Amino acid sequence: MGVQSRRAADRLTDLAGARIGFLWDYLFRGDELFPVLDRELRRRYPGIEIVGYEVFGNTHGPDEVERIAALPEALAERRIDAVVSGMGC
Amino acid sequence: MRASIAAEMAGVPSVSIVCSGFEGQAAATGRGHGFDELQLAVTTGHVDAQDREQLIADFENHTVDQIIAGLVGAAAPTGAGSGTDTASSVSGEPSAVEIVAAGDIDEINRVFAERGWSDGLPIIPPTRDRVEAFIAASGHDPWKRLGIAKSSGRDLTVWSVAVNAVMAGCRPEQLPILLAATEILADPHYGMEHSGNTTGADALAILNGPVAEELGFNHGPGALRDGTPANTSVGRWLRLYLRNVGGFTTDEHDKATFGNSFRVVLAEDERALAEIGWPPVSADFGFAAGDDVLTMARFNSGAIIGSVFGSTPAEVLPYLGDGLARISGWDLTHVHGLGHGQYRPLLVLSPILARTLAAGGMSKDDVKQALFDHARIPAWRFEKLIGQWSNLTAGRPRLLDVVAAGELPRAFAESDDPDRLVPIVTEPSKFVIAVAGDPSRTNAYVLSNDGPHGDYTAKLVDRRVASDLVCEVPADG
């Protein structure tokens, strides 16, 4: 069967008022960079909501398989409009 | 990337932050799940090599804008709804039975090398006749799907196993071993998708049971060296399969900074084990002595413990423990951090060393307990290895705090002295001990495993003729 092509999700039209989830693999200085992103997004887009990475847990740790499988439900439950995921290094 | 892919498949747009130089693997991972263009935001250089001021400035000035552009930028290509399948395959790859090259063996090898389908050594051309003959006696359906390569998205089929087996110089009677290895690759517990991580660990397959001797696997002198056809060809097959089906090449999923050559299969000396009454490695994973079993894990570093001196356990154990401690560095993050209790170094004892320990009245479990006591390092060193020196364990916690949180056993916090000695595994059973090598030499070998990135997984080697293709004709009635 092989790989079936998929369409990426539609982008947002505006970040103002959007709810953004942060996802982190607990590696490569995400703990220093996500706060910077949080600050910049809030500064530039009034009304934006940020849901921190700690809510979703480590996406690369010992529980990776289970956590990734549960991610769609976790995103839906928290009404996340878009995610920023790091850090791939 | 896997988190972003899960979000996209759920219809939630994503942007992945990656370090410069990681874009290719990120794109390949997306393609492996059918996404041609996932949104990336790239940092300037590797974040670990930057001072904090430079890190924050580069992120603010370059990466944040990329993240925003990825979230609200150009909409996904028009067409089907987000995250949905489309009918066509994205691969554009040749079909499984397509003739991809023709000519003499030199020409075939030239084409395969040019297209990145070989490991740099000459291959046996996988002609359709050879591949069909490889499978024929097994009774397996060539198109049986054993799983999916989570890296590339390609199916793991009997056919693709056989194609790469022919290329590697394997024998048809080895097919059950290769299928067991493929089942391991397909098992989420093993984590095949991590096979290209930057530290460059490589898989080692350990073979137990009568199959090893019957098919000519070497467990004696040079047990981990290429040269014996069975050990070498199966080890070579595994690397070729990861390359050609898993997509673990340096322009796709393999991000090994250095990497290792493929590892030949390690067959245990089952006679020596039987003689001293020790169970095989496969028993650690639920199988009985005498079962044909393949166990696989990925390992980073290896080191010899040379010229072990002594005729009693008390004399040899401190040196063996020292070897295990020496081999354990950043990998200790698999004790706590990247992994959780998944650091399980492998100690390969030559038969004479195993006999010395057994003659001293020690069972394999006794030896593991003794190694737990001897293989220790100062607490400050453990904390620096997983924290300050590697930054691999989030928050750089003190072992005292980790124990207080109930995430490590008391042995890691018997006092608050930073010079106290702490174990390198969470419990004695975490050590894996194999017996192989020259029976008359007193050397041992240690390997550090890569925790959840190729975690120990064992499968039965089923040598029965499969009934995949048997047709049942209902009795008249």
Q: Can you tell me about this structure?
A:
The complex is a heterodimer of chains A (about 90) and B (about 475). Chain A has about 90 residues and is an alpha/beta fold. Chain A has a domain at about 30-85. Chain A has helices spanning about 30-45, 55, 65-75; strands spanning about 5, 20-25, 50, 80-89. In chain A, strands 3-2-4 form a three-stranded parallel sheet. Chain A is globular, with a radius of gyration of 14 Å. In chain B, β1, α2 (about 25-30) and β2 form a beta-alpha-beta unit. Chain B starts with a helix and ends in a 17-residue tail after the last strand. Chain B has helices spanning about 1-10, 25-30, 50-70, 105-115, 130-135, 160-170, 175-185, 210-215, 230-245, 270-275, 315-325, 350-360, 365-375, 380-390, 400-405; strands spanning about 15-20, 40, 85-90, 145-150, 155, 200-210, 265, 295-305, 345-350, 375-380, 420-425, 430-435, 445-450, 455-460. The interface between A and B is large, with 56 and 85 residues. β4 of chain A pairs parallel with β1 of chain B, so a sheet runs across the interface.
Features:
heterodimer; A: 89 residues; alpha/beta; 3-stranded parallel beta sheet; 3 helices; B: 477 residues; 7-stranded mixed beta sheet; two-stranded parallel sheet
